[in-house]
Amino acid sequence: MKAFFFTSNHHKFAEISDVLSKYGIILSQKNIDFDERGETPEEVVLNKAKDAYRLVKKPVVTEDTAVYFDAYRDFPGLYAKRTFRSLGFSGLLKLLDGKTRKAHFKTSICSGDKGKYKVFSGVWKGKISRKIYSTKEVMAYERIFVPDGYRIPLCHFPRELKNRVSHRGRAAAKLGRWVKERPTIK
C-alpha cells in the first residue's frame, strides 16, 4: 500500500515510515500542516486526514502527538509545541518544581481513503527530567522525557529501539498490523 503522510516534521516522517515499511506500507511525505481542530489527538488526526484526503484523493496518513504532565489536567496536551515555544525548557521545568514529574505521550495516527478513516493510538508513560539532555537535533520533549523502565532520556534512544517501544511506534505498528490483516485495502 502507498499513502501520503502529511507533516512538515521530518523526524515524525522518518519514524513512522520506518515502522510502516515493515508492514508493506510505503509513505511519501507531503510537507503540509493542516489546522489542528479537535479536543483530543484522535479528533485532530481524523480532521487532518479528512482535509488531506480532500486534497489528494488518495490514501493518507496523519499523526498528532500530545504530551501530558500528571501535575496538570490535560496540559500541555495538544498545545505541547506552542507551550514549548512560549516557555522553553526552563519554563517547562519550572512548572514542575515541587510537583509530580510523571508524564506521558499520546500519539494518534489516522489512515484514510475513500471516506473511510481509522484511528490508532499509542501511549508511553514516564517522567519529566530535572535537566535538559543532548544538543543533537531531536523533538523538544525528547530532551526532557525519561520513559518508565529506562534511565536514559528519549533523545538518547537509538531509532530502532524508539520505534519499537515508543508511543509513535506503537500507534504506527497498530496501523501496520491492521492493514496487513486486510489485504483487500492494498
Write up this protein:
The chain has 186 residues and is an alpha/beta fold. It has a single domain (2-185), classed as Maf protein (Alpha-Beta Complex). It has helices spanning 10-21, 41-56, 80-95, 159-165, 167-180, and strands at 2-6, 26-30, 60-69, 76-77, 102-113, 116-128, 145-147. Strands 1, 2, 3, 4, 5, 6 and 7 form a 7-stranded mixed sheet that branches. A hairpin with a 6-residue loop joins β3 (60-69) and β4. The model has no long low-confidence stretch (mean pLDDT 95).
Salient structural properties:
7-stranded mixed beta sheet; alpha/beta; 7 strands; globular; Maf protein; 186 residues
Describe the secondary structure blueprint for this structure.
Layout: E1 2-6, H1 10-21, E2 26-30, H2 41-56, E3 60-69, E4 76-77, H3 80-95, E5 102-113, E6 116-128, E7 145-147, H4 159-165, H5 167-180
Parallel strand pairs: 1-2, 1-3
Antiparallel strand pairs: 3-4, 3-5, 5-6, 6-7
Helix pairs in contact: 1-5, 4-5
Task: Write a concise synopsis of the structure shown.
This protein is α/β, with parallel strands linked by helices and 186 residues long. Helix content is 35%, strand content 27%. It has helices at residues 10-21, 41-56, 80-95, 159-165, 167-180; strands at residues 2-6, 26-30, 60-69, 76-77, 102-113, 116-128, 145-147.
Order of helices and strands: EHEHEEHEEEHH
Number of strands: 7
Text of the CATH class: Alpha Beta
Radius of gyration: 16 Å
* Fraction in helix: 25-40%
Structural class, from secondary structure content? Answer: alpha/beta
Oligomer: single chain
End-to-end distance: 5 Å
Parts with pLDDT < 50 across at least 5 consecutive residues: none
Number of helices: 5
Give the CATH topology: Maf protein
Largest sheet: 7 strands, mixed
